[in-house]
Amino acid sequence: MLVSGGFLSFAEPVARALGFHEARANRLLSEGGRLTGEVAEPILGREAKVTALKEVTARLGLGPEDVLAVGDGANDLGMLRLAGLGVAVHAKPAVQAECPLRVNHADLTALLYLQGYARADFAA
Question: What are the pLDDT digits (tens) for 72-84?
Answer without folding.
Answer: 999 999 999 999 9
